[in-house]
Amino acid sequence: MGMYQHIGELWKQPRERLGEVFKQHLIAWRKGPATVRLEHPTRLDRARSLGYKAKQGIFVVRQRVAAGGHKRPDFAGGRHSKNFRRTMILAKNYRLIAEERANKQFPNCEVLNSYPVANDSKHYWYEVILVDRAHPSVRADNRTAWITNPTHRGRVYRGKTSAGRKIRGLRYKGTGAENLRPSKDANN
């Protein structure tokens, strides 16, 4: 088994296999800010498989998302329409929310992909791979230059990342998925 396979095996059951180290990480992450830029990925095998390269212009951000239902703040008062409810009915998953929030902190970058790192009863943590679209080393490399194209600007907000494609139902093809393309709204 190679190094990346060993790392992958450890992260299949991190609480059991990493033990006290994992617990200390969670304690520190809870106390820290919601968005943290990292020097290197926590799960190197997963990051590399999703397109991360240790080069200038590509970096990783750990994003914290609160677990539980998505609620609006309490209303100040007055009457509201019956559609104006406190609980937001969201189709979005936590991973997409984490990607959007990370991209909001770094508006000059594009989200390449993301992966889960940890969760407890109150939070989910994801590491989001971001690419600086204006960086010369990103533009010069044929493997990453596609993301600098203007058509990919704001791809996370348009459901073009892996997490976005999942909630749009684009993981399926053929029978039963006829009305998913080009979009659900286009077929109503």
What does this structure look like?
It is a single chain. This protein has one domain: Ribosomal protein L15 (Ribosomal protein L15e), CATH 3.40.1120. The mean pLDDT is about 90. The protein contains seven helices and four strands. Helices cover about 30% and strands about 20% of the residues. The chain has a four-stranded antiparallel β-sheet with strand order 1-2-4-3. The radius of gyration is 19 Å and the shape is globular. It has about 190 residues and is α+β, with helices and mostly antiparallel strands.
What's the structural blueprint in terms of helices and strands?
Blueprint (H helix, E strand, L loop, with lengths): L2 H8 L3 H4 L2 H12 L3 E4 L5 H6 L8 E9 L27 H12 L3 E11 L3 E10 L3 H5 L21 H6 L21
What attributes does this structure have?
28% helix, 188 residues, 7 helices, alpha+beta, Ribosomal protein L15e, single chain
Oligomer: single chain
Taken together, the total number of domains comes to 1
Question: What string, H for helix and E for strand, traces the elements in order?
Answer: HHHEHEHEEHH
Q: In terms of per-residue confidence, which ranges show pLDDT below 50 for 5 or more consecutive residues?
A: none
Shape from CA axes? globular
Q: In order across it, which strands form the biggest sheet?
A: 1-2-4-3
Arithmetic mean of pLDDT: 92
Query: How far is the N terminus from the C terminus?
Result: 50 Å
CATH-level-4 superfamily name: Ribosomal protein L15
Task: Give a brief description.
Helix content is 28%, strand content 18%. The protein has 188 residues and is an alpha+beta fold. The protein has a single domain, classed as 3-Layer(aba) Sandwich (Ribosomal protein L15e), CATH 3.40.1120.10.
